[in-house]
Amino acid sequence: MGSVGGVLYTGVTNNLPRRVAEHKSGEIPGFTGRYRVHRLLYCEEFVSIRDAIEQEKRIKSWTRAKRLALIRTMNPKFRDLSEESRD
Description:
Layout: H1 16-25, H2 31-34, H3 49-61, H4 64-74, H5 81-84
């Protein structure tokens, strides 16, 4: 997820629509609320929670440039994917 100002956040959930809604509504205190991280920029789906957590840790260890390059593979214009899925 990301903010309009460019702050990035990586996380894991078992219910993406619910989690995105929580971020957008401000229900999640802390980092994402403080930096207004409300836009879904990239997502991956995994069958195994272990695989998802491993990928989350991997992405969090990357440089910002590498994370931005990953987002561009799916979303080159950095659109809010949660808004597009509503159409």
